[in-house]
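TA notes, week 10

Several of you asked for a full example with nothing omitted. So below is the full record: structure tokens for the whole chain, then the designed sequence directly under it. When grading your own attempts, check the secondary structure regions first.
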């Protein structure tokens, strides 16, 4: 389906700061309109916070309610907006074919009406009807509890396909199995308070993790080691890393496994690794012999044969080109 970006509402840049720089739909249209790019796209974590709202009813009176809010990075927002436009067009056509155009009114971009307009229509209808039963209902946590398999089936049905294309599935997966960072933690990292003033200051930054933020950790120390391997092993190692990079959205950080290491337990998850665990995995796949234990920790690599210290010092002063490039695997 060919999409005219000028038909997409609010396609300009957003004012909030995120992990990437601010982008408008027009700037990234060529990238996001290529399905192969989306299939391989590495989505950023959402930024999460709880919005405090005030509600009122006859029983409780005025009370607080917290609404969870997640907002996407700028490039991801453009991707979601592009695909939402495509799916919404299909959905609008579908409800007309099913003769439920007047019943299904939520998330319709072709009605040119807001909730206020629809509410007025309902009240006008009630006034014109002498007798009517009015049923008012609400689904608590509706979107949080949707069956994702059922949702995927309905998407396939809407698109008239047996299986979602790779790009559509990548978008679907990024919104059903996502990672998030708390806004509160990001503010703390930037030395800001969790207040309106702190959030406004954060949103004045180019990104939420700018150079100034990283300067707060200027004294971080590191050590880089190498071992000698054959050309064949080196090529295998490169292939493994490139494969993981190309399908990075399929992999996750093994937080549970990392915590388990401290308890001398091994918890292995499919396509999930903590750092030392991934290095061991890559070495095994590349057929690099090692004596690493089953529950591996960074210090265990010091026991490898022929290991050599290449650099030790401040992380900010480390340069990759200092290391030998022939037959060397950096750990």
């Amino acid at each position: 389906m060919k999409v005219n970006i000028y038909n997409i509402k609010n396609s300009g840049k957003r004012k909030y700061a995120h992990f990437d720089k601010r982008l408008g739909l027009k700037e990234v249209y060529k990238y996001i309109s290529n399905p192969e790019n989306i299939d391989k796209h590495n989505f950023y974590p959402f930024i999460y916070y709880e919005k405090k709202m005030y509600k009122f009813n006859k029983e409780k009176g005025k009370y607080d309610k917290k609404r969870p809010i997640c907002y996407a990075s700028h490039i991801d927002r453009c991707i979601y907006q592009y695909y939402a436009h495509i799916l919404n067009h299909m959905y609008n056509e579908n409800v007309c074919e099913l003769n439920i155009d007047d019943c299904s009114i939520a998330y319709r971009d072709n009605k040119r009406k807001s909730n206020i307009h629809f509410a007025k229509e309902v009240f006008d209808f009630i006034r014109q009807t002498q007798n009517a039963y009015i049923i008012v209902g609400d689904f608590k946590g509706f979107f949080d509890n949707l069956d994702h398999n059922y949702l995927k089936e309905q998407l396939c049905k809407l698109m008239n396909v047996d299986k979602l294309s790779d790009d559509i599935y990548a978008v679907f997966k990024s919104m059903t199995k996502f990672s998030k960072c708390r806004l509160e933690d990001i503010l703390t990292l930037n030395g800001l308070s969790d207040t309106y003033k702190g959030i406004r200051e954060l949103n004045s930054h180019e990104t939420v993790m700018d150079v100034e933020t990283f300067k707060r950790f200027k004294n971080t120390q590191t050590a880089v080691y190498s071992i000698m391997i054959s050309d064949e092993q080196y090529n295998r190692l490169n292939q493994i890393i490139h494969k993981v990079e190309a399908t990075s959205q399929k992999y996750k950080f093994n937080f549970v496994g990392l915590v388990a290491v401290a308890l001398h337990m091994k918890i292995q998850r499919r396509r999930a690794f903590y750092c030392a665990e991934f290095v061991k995995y890559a070495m095994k796949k590349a057929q690099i012999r090692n004596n690493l234990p089953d529950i591996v920790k960074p210090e265990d690599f010091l026991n490898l044969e022929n290991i050599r210290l290449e650099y030790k010092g401040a992380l900010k002063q480390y340069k990759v080109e200092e290391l030998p490039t022939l037959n060397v695997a950096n750990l």
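DSSP finds twelve helices and eight strands in the chain. Use that as a sanity check on your answer.
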